[in-house]
Amino acid sequence: MNKHDSERVCGILENLGSRWVDSYEEADIVIFMTCCVREAADTRLMGQVASMKNLSLRADSPFKKRLIAVGGCIGQRDGEKLTEELAHIDIVFGTHNIASLPQLLMTALDDGLHHVEVLDAAAGFSTDLPIARVNDWAAWLPITVGCNNFCSYCIVPYVRGREKSRPLEEIVGEAAGYVESGVKEITLLGQNVNSYGRDLYGTPRFADVLKELDATGIARLRFATSHPKDLTDEVIEAFGNLKSLMPALHLPIQSGSDKILTAMNRNYTQAHYVSLIEKLRRTCPDIALSTDIIVGFPGETEADFEETCKVISEVGYTQVFTFIYSKREGTPAAKLHDDTPAEVIQERFDRLVGLVQENAWKQNQKDTGKLVEVLVEGASKRDAQLLAGKSPKNQTVHAKIPADTTLDELLGKFVTVKIEEAKTWYLKGRIIS
Question: Containing H/E element for 225?
Answer without folding.
Answer: none
